[in-house]
Amino acid sequence: MSSLPPRPVIGILHPGAMGAALGSALKARAGAVIWADAGRTHATAKRAELADLIAVPDVAELAARADVIVSICPPHAAREIAEQVAGSMRESAVYVDANAVAPDTVRGIAALLGPDRVCDGAVIGPPAWERGTTTLWLSGPCAAVVAELFEPGPFDARVLGTDPGDVGAASGLKACFALQSKAMPTLWLALEEAAARFGVTDALHAELDRNGVDHAGALAAIRTKMDGKAWRWAGEMDEAADALAAIGVPDGFSRAAAELYRRAAT
């Protein structure tokens, strides 16, 4: 890939909570950080305003202007966003897919946009406004160049590999991490629902208490974490399940978690 300008124009699709944080983090190295206004909500516009991002009319305009495009969206929309960008993306531009998707999904995006200009990204941690909370793992031919854009800054950017065959490695890491961060906690939701349907809730709680298990705390923690996010996490668990199935690892944990998050979102 060709090198980026000293002060590249960077486009964010789209500035949700994480996108706004990524956009803000990139301002120190960017000539401008832009986002596509068309069809976005007032809440998105407000986040972009607070992060001091510059609005452009639509995705086509953003793709035509940006030297680097960062896609950070709900997992189910990752491919669609890449397709929207494909027709207008500059030949020298870099595309960072920072979505929680399966390796095969990001490899498909690389095949669409060009494997030498797609960077596979995985954010592990919350939207970062200060150093020490969140790691951004990057893989693929553009990984090192993209990592430099985040230094210094609140996201700890780390490179997993820089070969074309490394596209998918960051997404694979994200899928593995999601097994413990998002799939395992849903065991408490399944346990509580099963006990209620068997009519043994009080007896189960008594046994858990007797064994020193803080079931109430665990339930409260997962319910608090997934509040307003369950619909998005369902999609992430679907992608994690696809990732596991593709390498022959049982995917039932993630499939069950996806279903439990979908129920919680309704």
UniProtKB/TrEMBL annotation:
Residues 10-98 form the Pyrroline-5-carboxylate reductase catalytic N-terminal domain. Residues 195-263 form the Phosphogluconate dehydrogenase NAD-binding putative C-terminal domain. Transmembrane segments: none annotated. It holds the Pfam family F420_oxidored. InterPro entries: 6-PGluconate_DH-like_C_sf (IPR008927), 6PGD_dom2 (IPR013328), NAD(P)-bd_dom_sf (IPR036291), P5C_Rdtase_cat_N (IPR028939), Pgluconate_DH_NAD-bd_C (IPR015814). Signal peptide: none annotated. This is DUF1932 domain-containing protein.
